[in-house]
Design goal:
This protein is mainly α. It is 58% helix and 0% strand. The chain binds a DNA duplex through helix 3, helix 4, helix 7, helix 9 and helix 10.
Length: 219
DNA sequence: AAAACGGGGGC
DNA sequence: GCCCCAGTTTT
């Protein structure tokens, strides 16, 4: 994909994803008025976990508590039962308690809006931190998850080996006006059409610009 | 049986 | 850089 073709590609993806349901974090953000705390927790739950599983777990957990102060009072077994069976549910239950405690202790129960501060919280890496900044606070950031990494490379827009490298490359190349929403666009596209294995290239309206890097079989 | 799931942390 | 975390669904 040529640099100038990114505009048409993004426009097309934006139109196409309207056919599919929002990813969980987007739903949580919309329903809560972009509550950064709920964005943070639902993002944590989503790591290595299918969207549908994350949605059910978030619903159960948020029925019990929606603020750091109240969520901190939940016991580990209660949290584990609520979020099961998301990936690494035991680790995440502990991290949720620790996150709540640290938010109350260090930030008066508020979620930081700076990447560096978010990265000090347990279980929060670059993907989660950038998602909180972009979705929760609508501030400039590039959230690179496995979908953004895979599709950016498949298009040939960047040539990188890891999500962290992809973030660096996109910060240098992707026009700033797309930073905040790039992840929101590519995640549903990756979930429903541009999947890891046998993507639906015959239905893809940007196949003309796509280099199909790493695509061996498609449908 | 293996890959995939919107990674992160400890070493 | 390598390995671990963890259970469910899809191929």
């Amino acid at each position: 994909m040529q640099a100038q073709e990114i505009h048409a590609a993004i426009r097309t993806v934006k139109r196409e994803i309207a056919r599919w349901p929002d990813p969980v974090v987007g739903v949580v953000a919309r329903q809560s008025g972009r509550d950064p705390f709920l964005v943070l927790i639902s993002c944590l739950l989503s790591l290595r976990t299918k969207d549908k599983t994350t949605a059910e777990a978030s619903e159960r957990l948020f029925a019990l508590a929606v603020t750091p102060a109240t969520m901190q009072t939940l016991t580990i077994p209660i949290i584990e039962r609520a979020i099961y069976p998301v990936g690494f549910y035991r680790t995440k239950a502990k991290q949720i308690q620790q996150i709540c405690a640290q938010l109350l202790e260090r930030y008066q129960g508020r979620v930081p809006d700076k990447i560096d501060e978010l990265l000090t919280l347990p279980g929060v890496g670059r993907k989660t931190a950038n998602l909180v900044v972009t979705v929760g606070y609508e501030k400039p950031g590039i959230c690179v998850d496995i979908h953004v990494h895979r599709i950016s490379n498949r298009w040939g827009y960047v040539k990188t080996k890891s999500p962290d490298e992809t973030e660096t490359a996109l910060r240098a190349k992707l026009p700033r006006k797309y930073w905040i929403t790039f992840n929101d666009l590519l995640v549903p596209y990756g979930q429903h059409l541009c999947q890891p294995v046998s993507p639906l290239c015959s239905q893809c309206k940007i196949a003309a610009y796509c280099d199909r890097v790493g695509v061996t079989k498609s449908r």
